[in-house]
Design brief:
The chain is of the alpha/beta class. Residues 4-38 have low confidence and may be disordered. It has five helices and seven strands.
Length: 152
């Protein structure tokens, strides 16, 4: 009996440690296999995102930054839903429209995570911008800056 219990205990302990992320001992790795992560969402550069929006003007542009960066300049037609609010505001979006998310991160991490939230909630076609709103501007595309002049 001891021969069976000891190897079983070692296997269970080793298996439990495999759920941890390397370099981050307090974070549990996602149980979703990598092959299933973002199965439909594709990353798009600023240039590719512009092309997509030109081809599908009825799509939704989702800015997942906070109010201040949004007010300093956002993509034309963008809807602001800060990343932390997204899970509670999914009903604000049409699941059947093409959605492209973007953020202020140079690598698009928050946009990618937002795209995953949308896919997990059964949104049909989701893309994320792999670059920041600054990359959009740097590519020569306009950002909308709200009029800060006081009303006359």
């Amino acid at each position: 009996m001891l021969r069976f219990v000891l190897p079983f205990t070692v296997i269970v302990l080793l298996g439990a440690s495999c759920g941890r992320l390397a370099g981050a001992p307090d974070q549990v790795a996602s149980r979703t296999p990598v092959s299933q992560t973002l199965t439909e969402a594709q990353g798009k550069s600023a240039v590719e995102a512009k092309r997509l929006l030109d081809e599908q003007p009825a799509g939704i542009v989702l800015d997942v930054r906070t109010n201040d960066p949004y007010d300093q300049g956002h993509l034309p037609g963008a809807i602001l839903i800060p990343f932390q609010e997204l899970p509670d505001r999914l009903s604000d979006l049409d699941k059947n429209k093409t959605i492209i998310t973007y953020c202020g991160c140079s690598n698009g991490q928050s946009a990618r995570k937002a795209a995953q939230i949308l896919l997990d909630a059964n949104f049909k076609t989701v893309y994320y911008m792999t670059e920041s709103a600054s990359a959009w501007r740097d590519a020569g595309y306009p950002l909308v800056v709200p009029d800060t002049q006081p009303a006359a």
